[in-house]
Amino acid sequence: MRAYLAIIKDSFREALASRILYIMLGLISLLLLLAAPLTYRLELTTGVREGDAEEWPDLIDKLKQAEAETKPSPTRRIWTLLTAEQQKHVRDFKRLPKQPQLKDVREFQQAARKVIDALDEVAKKPELHDKPSWAGVSVSFEGRQLLGKGAEKLDSQDTLRLNRILIEAAFPGLMRLSPTTSFQFRYSFVRDFGPPLPITRSQFHDGITATLPYLVDKFLLAVGLLVAILVTSPIIPQTFDPGSLHLLLSKPIGRSLLYLTKFAGGCAFVMLCATYLFVGLWLLLGTRFGIWEPSILMCIPLYAFVFAIYYSVAALAGMFWRNAIVSVIVAVVFWGICFGVGSLNVLLEGTIDSSRLKRVVVAGDDVVAMDASKTPWVWDKETNAWKITFLTDEQKDFRFLFGLANGRNLGPAYDPKHKQLVGATLSLSNGQLMIVGGKKEKDWKPQEGPPAPISPVDILNEPDGTPLLVTNYSIQRVTGEITPPESKVKFLGYTLPSLKGGALTDGGPRPAQGWGDGMAPAIDPKTGLLYIYDGGEFTTLALQSGRYERQEKKRIWEKDRGRPVLAACGGTVLLGRANGQVVIFDGKTLETKETLEPEKESRVEAMAASPSGKTIAVLFENRRLWMYNVEEGKLELSRVTGQRDISAVTFASEDRLLVADRTDRVTEYSEDMSVSRRISPSMSLYAQAFRYGITPIYTICPKPGEFYKTVTHILADPPKPKSAAGEDDGNGEVRASSRG
Fold first, then answer.
1. 558, 610, 565: which is closest to 731 by C-alpha?
2. What is the three-class DSSP state of 94?
């Protein structure tokens, strides 16, 4: 063992003798010394800058109106303090035309810049405040404190700060409210550079924390790794030079262990330099900016690990070719291959993800699916392939453009009573979201019915299959066939649909509700109760005489951010929250029964309830499927195939479970989880290349693109612990107190 330790020591002695270590440490010291004088100071936020207004044209228009005013006012006071030339700049200011040319934009920017400079000069005048002009004007608490001291008793800096507050009060809603202090960066403790940044200390800390991962990844890891490879590349080739090899083999050591020892020596050399660099950066951030971020030190082993990966390739090339230049070239080519494979993986994965089935509907004997781009497909048994369906001829012709605007589309859902598919889709003729219906005998070609209600959220199915359109304000039931209206209105050559409801009937409730954007509806297929979860509050509604009437309303949390997922089955309600929790409620009392986190690093993406009321399928974003047994109260990992690649799940009659995986494959399981049918189209060429070529190579290759994510994770703030009732648990929510 001593012989191998001696070799490592010899590596450092050689580095010292060749001055490589001195040069590396000197370069790192120079970098740290150049960064050491960089610091900041806090100063009062004063003056007017280009980014201080929400809309400069609106503010300047208000300032123009002050010229005609006769009574004292803040804007009139500012106008009188402008010079004649500055007043002319305000009068001559013009808004951009509707279709501006490059010349118009340039002139607009120059004119706005002149007015901004004029306001900045006014903000420096101590006579800005006079009692008649500012009487009755609401100013901030800080401004009232300064005025309470007496404007004549304020020093120059406080006067400038007061003037900034007064200008904000003169243009309420147009000027951004500024923090008391701004950050002014300095160098060498003397020279300021750049304009002061009107941000708070916490915003500055957050900005540094957000920028650090990029700087560490792009500069320290990328450039530093290249330098480290260049410096250490001669180690292995020199080891196997005839003279050096004979000397080393005179000791009782083997060639393979000699190679590994030299490799370890190169890694130790780089580890020493990385430790010096990151400890120095940590001390600089702490002493100069007050940011003591210990996670920076965790980048030392990460840097050494990443270096070891690429250095292993360079060392192997050095052993074969015994040339340092070839070693560097091979390492760079290896990095390029890894980067290219990663980029190709991202490109193909994005294409395939857009084709993943996200919704599966059983429409009679047919299976209809919707992919991630919201393109509907139907399974064609004759050709053994998916074919586009439920689109008009115009939508098919302009499918690419239609796909960019179809994010609002809903459905489809199957109406067994009228044997039609029901959905809400964007009309290319009038730009409205329209209710559409299609039948199998017409190859599911949709016909436009009435306009969709305002803010539609989802299309559900009642226990008897009747489609139910839930919006943020109302509930609509599809009680008839969706057909084009008999009377049509022509406008500018376009045929507009009738505004009459037609197949839609009002489903209540009364009075109308106002649910938020994050609402989630669900129907219990066994009891028929409609559950709506909205920002921490549950509402239950029951169908009575064709309308849904409110039965129960209960607040569970004071607030709950994110988009939840809801399912109800057999008197049990499952709520998938944005923080990854699956909360189980009693369907009658809405009392919490249990809180589970089966996938701690993933959130719920979709849920589906079985018609019999026995099972709820829970699909997570990591594409793993779990099944909740309502009778036993257990959540277990499903025994279906394709785990970690599942994209959609639904139930059909007789508790048949349909699972979409492998992009566009659908497998049907019977109640005993045996496979009863499998829809498996042939894979496209790029899908085969991705699955059997790119994915295996990407799996075994280092991933340069993932290093940034790792650094971001290391330098990110640690998660806040969950708290007791009545406190924020770090997920943007506050548990409602049990005390009245």
1. 558
2. coil
**Residue 364 is encoded by which pair of tokens?**
């009679």
Residue 39 has pLDDT above 90, yes or no: no
How far apart CA 224 and CA 229 sit, in angstroms, is: 9
Please give the C-alpha separations between residue 659 and each of 98, 468, 488, 575, 673, in angstroms, as whole numbers: 51, 23, 42, 21, 11
Tokens representing residue 216 in the block: 């560490």
Cα angle vertex 118, ends 113, 119, to 5°? 100
φ and ψ of 594, to 5 deg: -165, 150
User: Could you give the angle at the alpha carbon of 482 between the alpha carbons of 468 and 419, nearest 5°?
Assistant: 75
**Which percentage of the chain shows pLDDT scores above 70?**
87
Q: What's the pLDDT tens digit per position in 647-700?
A: 999 999 888 999 999 999 999 999 999 999 999 999 888 888 888 888 898 888
Helices 704-715 and 299-321: crossing angle in degrees, nearest 10, is 160
Q: What is the DSSP letter of 498?
A: P
> In Å, what is the CA distance from 115 to each residue of 58, 86, 546?
13, 7, 63
Q: Give the C-alpha separation, 553 to 539, whole Å.
A: 4
- Sorted by where each begins, the domain ranges of the chain are 2-39+204-341, 46-178, 531-662
Backbone phi, psi, residue 174, to 5°: -110, -35
Alpha carbons 424 and 427: distance in angstroms, whole number: 9
Asked whether the predicted pLDDT for residue 721 surpasses 50, the reply is: no
Q: Which letter, b or e, does each residue of 543-571 get, where b requires 16 or more Cβ atoms within 10 Å of its Cβ? A: beeebbebeeeeebbeebeeebbbbbbbe
Q: For 526-571, what is each residue's pLDDT tens digit?
A: 999 999 999 899 999 999 988 999 999 999 998 888 889 999 999 9
Q: How many CA atoms lie within 13 A of 630 on its CB side?
A: 24
> Which DSSP letter does residue 551 get?
E
535 sits in the region (left: phi over 0; alpha: psi -120 to 50; else beta) called left
Residue in the block written with tokens 């857009």: 354
Q: Residue 648 forms beta bridges with which residues?
A: 660
Residue 132 exposure: Cα atoms within 13 Å on the Cβ side: 6
Q: Is 496 helix (H, G, I), strand (E, B) or coil?
A: strand
Would the pLDDT of 739 be above 90?
no
Paired residues of 369 in beta bridges: 360, 377
CB 424, CB 410: distance < 8 Å: yes
Q: Which residues contact 693 (CB under 8 A, 6 or more apart)?
A: none
- Name which of 107-111, 180-184, 444-448 the model is least confident about: 180-184
Give the residue among 471, 480, 413, 472 at the shortest CA–CA distance from 450: 480
Structure tokens at 585: 């409620």
- The pLDDT, as a whole number, for residue 668 is 97
Spatial distance between the Cα atoms of 439 and 426, rounded to a whole number of angstroms: 19
Residue 462 CA to residue 530 CA, distance in Å, equals 9
Q: Are 625 and 659 in contact (CB under 8 A)?
A: yes
Q: Which CATH class is domain 531-662?
A: mainly beta
Question: Are residues 426 and 433 in contact, defined by beta-carbon separation less than 8 angstroms?
Answer: yes
Q: Which of 7, 1, 22, 2 is nearest to 264 (CA)?
A: 7
Name residue 494's beta-bridge partners.
491
The CA dihedral of 586, 590, 591, 596, to the nearest 10 degrees, is 60
CA distance 610 to 711: 43
Residue with tokens 């007015």: 115
pTM above threshold 0.85: no
Name the more confident of 114 and 188: 114
Are 728 and 722 contacting, i.e. CB atoms less than 8 angstroms apart? Answer: no
Q: Which residues pair with 468 in a beta bridge?
A: 460, 477
